Amino acid sequence: MNTQIRTDLRKKAKDGIDRAGDTTVKMILALLEVEEQEVEAETTFEKEMQKRIDEYEQGAIVPVSLDEMEKRVRTNYHNRIQTGI
């Protein structure tokens, strides 16, 4: 989106907010909060993924296949059932 279009949209949005009722303003604020949370979640996810990639590339972790992970989860689950935990 070019700068002029963005500027025009922001002006229209601000004008609309100035004329809007309390309920509309609250809804707009809620939307902005959700967007902020989504951006934060994406950033957190990206950082975690990069951390894991770095650990893998440095040899700090040993990757496990999906089959092996499923086997471990099933074994752990069955052990918990048998021990009553």
Entry keywords:
85 residues, mainly alpha, 84% helix, elongated
Write the layout of secondary structure elements.
Layout: H1 3-19, H2 22-57, H3 66-83
What Rg is obtained from the alpha carbons, in whole angstroms? 24 Å
- What is the strand content? under 5%
Helix vs. strand class: mainly alpha
**Count of DSSP strands:** 0
Mean pLDDT equals 93
Q: What are the secondary-structure elements, in order, as H or E? A: HHH
Helix content: over 70%
Largest sheet: none
The assembly state of the depicted protein chains is: single chain
Low-pLDDT stretches: none
Descriptive account of the structure:
The chain has 85 residues and is mostly helical. It has helices spanning 3-19, 22-57, 66-83. The mean pLDDT is 93.
